[in-house]
């Protein structure tokens, strides 16, 4: 079973099982089709990982069998975070396949792909995959390719530690760090990456549980940050780290229990990377705060703007030989991590800087918080293209529009971006301004246009 709806712009994602979008037979077909898309031959290999969702073992095994039916070998990395799979692809120089639905509910599952060296796949490749898989008339035959199980968690940890100077953690006062794994894959990686460091680690929901019994593994939603914010205050912690389900994203909470905007973390790490490599390039996406570009320019670097989504940012990282990249969704990309995103490495950078500077996180990020932001606001509409056209027309003469990713309009002291989601039937609005009242005015005007009764199906 395979539904066309599971094929998204950057990956595969959908409900699993009876009445859902796909199942193990569909995964088996996908495995064979992906081998065809990549042009792999008998004896070639790919590396495969999976998250803790209840459906992941069966689906990943079926995908592996489908790939092996073409004589291709599979290196099974077992349980790993998505950035752990990017590491495996880079470390082994093999195409990678990760079974995860990231922050989606427990009944969903999905697949993220990369080429050898953790290089991004292209939208055309995912289109080819959908066409081949949906046209399949029979299941793959018996697997003949080799199957090798390999635990790479230790190698992943060693590589991350090699990229950050962590010596200051041992020299100053011992830091207390809250880490909320949300019952996701950070519960698997945290003991290895942070367990041996001289910090006091307060773990929340570190047991792997794909039903997510405590809160949904999506730190973009404020209600999923409540427990970590409370724990920071209760334990007098220096900061908190909050990970999503597949642990490739990390949100930071300061010592007051306040959430630090991912754009501020992007600016903070960008400043560090440019101090290490003057004149470097930093990639951001269309909804990243304009403060990041200002910080990069002040440090003598260059900013490149990409569409939202890891495949687009990775491609821009490679094209422009960027040293670092960040998205407002808390994806952070590092050249020395095969240009892939890793929330855990970003967390190590923040910990190292906090220890080295000896100042609270709130002080470290203060100079990067220059604008008032709306946060992301979602609306469901009947006709997204027509809605974008209507909003652009309404702002004619009041700002400069572009269509790199949805609609961005830049005015005097304000900007907004309105774009279709890559994974859900939503329009996502982000507004930023120098003055809070201006931000509110622009936000409310755009929302009124988007949610006009004649066009809106529903809102949330």
From TrEMBL:
InterPro entries: A-D-PHexomutase_a/b/a-I (IPR005844), A-D-PHexomutase_a/b/a-I/II/III (IPR016055), A-D-PHexomutase_a/b/a-II (IPR005845), A-D-PHexomutase_a/b/a-III (IPR005846), A-D-PHexomutase_C (IPR005843), A-D-PHexomutase_C_sf (IPR036900), Alpha-D-phosphohexomutase_SF (IPR005841). It comes from the Bacteria. Residues 6-133, 155-257, 265-371 form the Alpha-D-phosphohexomutase alpha/beta/alpha domain. Residues 376-448 form the Alpha-D-phosphohexomutase C-terminal domain. Its cofactor is Mg(2+). Belongs to the phosphohexose mutase family. This is Phosphomannomutase/phosphoglucomutase. It comes from Auraticoccus cholistanensis.
């Amino acid at each position: 079973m395979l539904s066309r709806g599971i094929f998204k712009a950057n990956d595969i994602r959908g409900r699993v099982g009876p009445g859902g979008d796909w199942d193990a037979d569909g995964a088996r077909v996908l495995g064979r089709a992906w081998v065809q898309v990549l042009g792999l031959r008998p004896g070639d290999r790919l590396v495969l990982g999976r998250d803790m969702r209840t459906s992941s073992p069966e689906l990943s095994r079926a995908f592996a069998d489908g790939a092996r039916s073409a004589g291709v070998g599979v290196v099974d990395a077992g349980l790993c975070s998505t950035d752990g799979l990017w590491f495996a692809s880079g470390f082994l120089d093999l195409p990678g396949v990760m079974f995860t639905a990231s922050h989606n509910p427990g009944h969903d599952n999905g697949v993220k792909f990369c080429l050898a060296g953790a290089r991004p796949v292209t939208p055309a490749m995912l289109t080819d995959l959908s066409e081949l898989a949906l046209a399949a008339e029979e299941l793959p035959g018996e697997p003949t390719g080799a199957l090798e199980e390999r635990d790479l968690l230790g190698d992943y940890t060693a590589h991350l530690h090699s990229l950050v100077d962590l010596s200051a953690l041992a020299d100053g006062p011992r830091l207390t760090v809250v880490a909320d794994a949300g019952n996701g894959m950070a519960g698997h990686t945290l003991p290895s990456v942070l367990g041996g460091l001289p910090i006091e680690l307060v773990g929340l929901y570190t047991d792997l549980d794909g039903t997510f019994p405590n809160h949904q593994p999506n730190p973009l939603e404020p209600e999923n940050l409540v427990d970590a914010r409370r724990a920071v205050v209760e334990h007098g912690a220096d900061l908190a780290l909050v990970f999503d389900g597949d642990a490739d994203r990390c949100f930071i909470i300061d010592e007051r229990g306040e959430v630090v905007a991912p754009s501020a973390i992007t600016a903070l790490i960008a400043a560090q990377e440019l101090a290490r490599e003057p004149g470097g390039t930093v990639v951001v996406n269309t909804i990243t705060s304009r403060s990041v570009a200002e910080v990069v320019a002040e440090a003598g670097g260059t900013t490149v703007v990409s569409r939202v989504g890891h495949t687009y940012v990775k491609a821009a990282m490679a094209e422009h030989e960027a040293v670092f990249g960040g998205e407002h969704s808390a994806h952070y990309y590092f050249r020395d991590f095969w240009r892939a995103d890793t929330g855990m490495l970003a967390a190590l950078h923040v910990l190292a800087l906090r220890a080295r500077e000896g100042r609270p996180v709130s002080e470290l990020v203060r100079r990067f918080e220059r604008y008032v932001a709306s946060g992301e606001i979602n609306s469901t509409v009947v006709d997204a293209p027509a809605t974008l056209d209507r909003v652009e027309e309404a702002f004619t003469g009041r700002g400069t529009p572009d269509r790199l990713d949805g609609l961005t309009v830049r005015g005097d002291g304000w900007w907004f971006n309105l774009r279709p989601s890559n994974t859900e039937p939503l329009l996502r609005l982000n507004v930023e301004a120098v003055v809070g009242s201006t931000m509110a005015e622009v936000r409310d005007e755009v929302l009124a246009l988007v949610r006009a009764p004649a066009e809106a199906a529903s809102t949330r």
